[in-house]
From TrEMBL:
A Pfam family recorded for this sequence: SAM_1
Region called Disordered, residue ranges: 464-492, 630-672
Boundaries of every DDHD domain copy: 516-722
WWE domain location: 24-107
Alphabetized InterPro entries for the sequence: DDHD_dom, PA-PLA1, SAM, SAM/pointed_sf, WWE_dom, WWE_SEC23-DDH2
Annotated protein name in UniProt: Phospholipase DDHD2
UniProt gene name: DDHD2
Biased segments, Basic and acidic residues type: 466-475, 647-667
Native species: Gekko japonicus (Schlegel's Japanese gecko)
Gene3D superfamilies, A to Z: Transcription Factor, Ets-1
SMART domains: DDHD, SAM
Length: 733
């Protein structure tokens, strides 16, 4: 200990060993109890390192494997519902389903308070040294011991309740620096139970349902500019709390476990390479605003571009297929269904994908059965069995592999696209025109073809396929374009067998929509612009008999102030005006300000209809009795007077019958077609009291509020578990 030598009275742990062993034999030795460790991981947030505790369930699991594998090789322990793996020997926490920087993991027993009042754990080696010193102090009842950490920081154990930490001074003189001269002391705590940190209990091991979540424009998904992974983490936490609050009976009877939510990111793939091209043409003025537009708003234009639209739908479908296969590999006993959810532009991408799914699913079912019947060892074989359904499928499915339909040699194709400089690359790889027709984007990338030329080649091949497909007979349409209305089938029950689909070619960028390797049960859209895009594409009406080819359920949830959300039901029932379904509050009532507003509206209506009507009748009666001549002169005719009196009395008699016509029950009888199996589609959230003061002020927040909305999460859980015959403990009013 070079910085500050301990005083003679402050013996180090190695001194007075004989006194220590003598005291260990006394009754005072019983005062010491070993500390209980807890496992933490380090995560960087806002350029600061924060140590976050694992759940109690995961910490116990890690401690168990740590104790049982001290002399074993590397052991990987799945944590946080299987979304992260912990490599015990390396002390690293690694994401399973998405790309993320690895986090340091630590077995923690001793902590000190940091600058932001968050407790920071000491290293495992120094914690053992602190624990040994603490044991000696307790056993010998001798305190005021001093230790120096590897970073030359001083820790003094004054007594069991007072232990302090001093940071080293930046500059020291020849006389040295005493601990009191080293700044404000920090509190030191032993054991996780003595620090103010919230430790989650853990997640149920059983997974009942899987939901893929697709984001909208830009890399940030909420008002705090957080990533999709963080927002989905919040939504998952909200859903777990809703399960505990509204499905408690089913949980106690072990009928349900939980719903897993996995994020699907397409923004990073799209902007790889494109950002460099955008940077070259972006003006230097208002730099931050222009870069914000490049990262967010331009995604809408990318989706309306034939080149980048294909990249987006390919990325979304391939990522969902990849995640599904990986999930089955890690959860071989999974028997639940799959649903998908999309926010903003992500919901439009999913809607276009679903409208272009094929109804013939024999090959999908065969491959799915292979996946479920195979074990983890045969996973690669299953992956090969479903490779023809993945988005990385060869472009030979889009055009004849023989190079027909006008596809010339590779040299001619590259010359036509002004890409002759890359001919040597194809020649080196022995790629002829047949092989070119089978190339995927991944293979072109591996050959070293840049993004721009790669997109040109792929777009050229897809256009060849589109020309071929345009010659084929179109299926029956379920939409109205302008004044031309396509007839629905005579028998609505045969809609699925007829495999009707929206004519997405009309007003939409042509793309080769890939196929998913599973059938989603429900499609949830958050703050979706689907209605607006369909209208812009020229679709004025969706046939009520239409349903998505492979997905039975469809729910659109939106905030009333969301500027991006547009309704869908008026496209199905254009001749009727009706409000969207008000989403029940998760506490089983309307928000207080909405109840007050509704009560005041009803009261004003009653005053207008009842009070004023009664005053009018009373005034007419008063004037008729007191001044008959004036009344006769005012009316001009006794017959008109009697008619007025009769109509007033009749109106008064009809007053009690008015409440018998409930206006609120009208939306429940509205038939909005088969897009959601005959049920309502549009659901509107209840705004918060503070949001009702200024709609424009909370417009942006209204578009990004779904990740922490209990009402939204509860609707998803309610509809998902209804497919399993499980309902809420108590129905919401």
């Amino acid at each position: 200990m070079s910085a500050a030598e301990p005083q003679p009275t402050e013996a180090s742990p190695s001194l007075n060993s004989s006194s220590f062993f003598e005291a260990a034999e006394t009754d005072t030795a019983n005062k010491y109890e070993p500390v209980s460790p807890h496992w933490f991981y380090c995560k960087e947030a806002d350029s600061r390192e924060r140590w976050i505790p694992f759940s109690g369930q995961d910490s116990e699991k890690l401690e168990h494997f740590y104790q049982s594998s001290k002399d074993c090789e590397e052991l990987v322990v799945p944590t946080e519902g299987g979304r992260y793996d912990v490599h015990l020997k390396k002390r690293l926490r690694c994401a399973v389903y998405w790309e993320e920087k690895d986090s340091e993991v630590r077995r923690c027993t001793w902590f000190y308070k940091g600058e932001d009042n968050k407790y920071i754990p000491y290293s495992e080696s120094f914690s053992e040294e602190l624990e040994e010193t603490y044991m000696i102090c307790v056993t010998l009842d001798e305190w005021k011991r001093k230790l120096e950490s590897p970073s030359r920081e001083i820790i003094i154990l004054h007594n069991p309740k007072l232990m302090v930490h001093y940071h080293p001074v930046a500059v020291s003189d020849d006389w040295g620096a005493s601990p009191t001269e080293q700044g404000r002391p920090r509190t030191v705590k032993r054991g996780v139970e003595n620090i103010s940190v919230e430790i989650p209990i853990g997640e149920p091991l059983q997974i009942d349902h899987l939901v893929f979540v697709v984001h909208g424009i830009g890399p940030a998904c909420d008002i705090r500019f957080r990533s999709l992974i963080q927002c989905v983490d919040d939504f998952r936490s909200v859903s777990l709390s809703m399960l505990q609050a509204h499905f408690k009976k089913a949980q106690e009877q072990q009928q349900i476990g939980r719903v897993e939510f996995l994020p699907v990111n397409w923004h990073s793939t799209l902007h790889t390479g494109v950002d460099v091209e955008l940077e070259r043409i972006t003006l230097p003025s208002i730099n931050r605003l222009r870069h914000f537009i490049n990262d967010t708003i331009l995604d809408v234009f990318f989706y309306n571009s034939s080149t980048y639209c294909q990249t987006i739908v390919d990325t979304v479908a391939s990522e969902m297929n990849r995640l599904y296969l990986l999930f089955l590999q890690r959860n071989p006993d999974f028997k639940g269904g799959v649903s998908i959810a999309g926010h903003s532009l992500g919901s439009l991408i999913l809607f276009d994908l679903l409208t272009n799914q094929k109804c013939t699913t024999e090959r999908e079912d065969d491959n799915k059965r292979k996946l479920h019947s195979s074990g983890q060892a045969d996973f690669q074989g299953c992956l090969h069995a479903t490779s023809d359904l993945l988005i990385e499928q060869p472009l030979g499915t889009c055009m004849p592999a023989s190079g027909e339909e006008g596809l010339g040699s590779v040299k001619d194709v590259l010359k036509e696209l002004e890409l002759s400089e890359y001919y040597s690359v194809f020649e080196r790889e022995h790629v002829d025109r047949e092989a070119l027709a089978l190339c995927t984007e991944k293979e072109l990338k591996e050959m070293g073809i840049p993004l721009g030329p790669r997109m040109k080649i792929l777009h050229y091949l897809r256009n060849k396929r589109s020309n071929q497909d345009s010659k084929r007979e179109r299926p029956a349409m379920a939409w109205e374009d302008g004044d031309a209305k396509q007839e629905a089938p005579a028998n609505p029950t045969n809609v699925k067998s007829n495999c009707q689909c929206l004519d997405v070619v009309t007003g939409q960028v042509s793309a080769n929509y890939p196929q998913l390797i599973y059938k989603p049960q429900i499609f949830f859209a958050f703050g979706s612009p689907i209605g607006m895009f369909l209208t812009v594409r020229g679709i004025k009406r969706i046939d009520p008999a239409y349903s998505l080819p492979t997905c039975k359920g469809f729910f659109h949830i939106f905030h009333p102030f969301d500027p991006v959300a547009y309704r869908i039901e008026p496209l199905i029932v254009p001749d009727m005006e009706f409000e969207p379904m008000l989403l029940p509050h998760h506490k089983g009532r309307k928000r207080m300000h909405l109840e007050l507003k509704e009560g005041l509206t009803r009261m004003s209506t009653d005053i207008k209809n009842n009070l004023l009507g009664s005053l009018r009748v009373a005034w007419q009666s008063f004037t008729r009795v007191s001044l008959p001549a004036v009344e006769a002169g005012a009316t001009g005719d006794a017959e008109q007077e009697s008619e007025t009196e009769t109509s007033s009395e009749k109106q008064t008699d009809e007053k009690p019958e008015e409440p018998a016509t409930p206006a609120k029950e009208e939306p429940t009888s509205i038939n909005v077609g088969m897009l959601n199996g005959g049920h309502r589609i549009d659901y509107v959230l209840q705004e918060k009291p503070i949001e009702s003061f200024n709609e424009y002020l909370f417009a942006l927040q209204g578009h990004l509020c779904y990740w922490v909305s209990e009402d939204t999460a509860l609707l998803l859980l309610r509809e998902i578990y209804q497919t399993q015959g499980i309902s809420l403990d108590q129905p919401l009013l």
